[in-house]
Design goal:
Elements (H helix, E strand, L loop, with lengths): L1 H5 L3 H31 L3 H46 E3 L4 E3 L26
Antiparallel strand pairs: 1-2
Length: 125
C-alpha cells in the first residue's frame, strides 16, 4: 500500500505508512488481548506480558506459543493453588456443596399470625 501511495506523492505515502503503523499498534495492543481474553479466558494484561516475554525469550515462535502456555499455566495454578483452598472451606453434602464461612442474615419477621386452639392446629400425635 505504501509503494502504491508513492506513485501519487511522498506525503501520501508517509500518511499511508503512518496510518498502517497506528492500525497495527491498535490491533496488537487492544484488539488481540481482548480477543484472547474471550477465547482463552486470560486477562488482557497477562496476554500482553506473555506475548512480550515469549517474544523476548524465543522470538516469533515464543510469541506464537506464549498465549497457550500462559493459559495452561493459569489452569495449573488455579488447580494446584486456588482450588484446594476452596475445597477446604467447602462442606460436601448429598445435595451438593455448601460453602462454609459465609454468614446468612436472620430472616426478617414482617407480621405474626395468632392461631386459635382449634383441633388440627397443634402437633399431630
Amino acid at each position: 500500500a505504501v509503494l502504491l501511495a508513492f506513485t501519487v506523492s511522498w506525503p501520501v505515502a508517509l500518511f499511508v505508512a503512518l496510518l498502517y503503523f497506528v492500525i497495527q499498534q491498535l490491533e496488537a495492543h487492544i484488539l488481540v488481548p481482548k480477543v484472547m481474553e474471550r477465547a482463552v479466558g486470560l486477562n488482557p494484561l497477562l496476554v500482553i506480558v506473555a506475548l512480550i516475554a515469549g517474544g523476548l525469550l524465543s522470538g516469533v515462535v515464543g510469541a506464537l506459543l506464549a498465549v497457550p502456555v500462559a493459559g495452561a499455566a493459569q489452569v495449573i495454578v488455579r488447580h494446584l493453588l486456588i482450588d484446594p483452598t476452596i475445597r477446604k472451606r467447602a462442606l460436601r453434602t448429598e445435595d451438593g456443596i455448601v460453602i462454609v464461612g459465609e454468614e446468612e442474615e436472620e430472616p426478617e419477621v414482617l407480621s405474626t399470625v395468632q392461631v386459635s386452639d382449634q383441633p388440627g392446629n397443634g402437633p399431630q400425635s
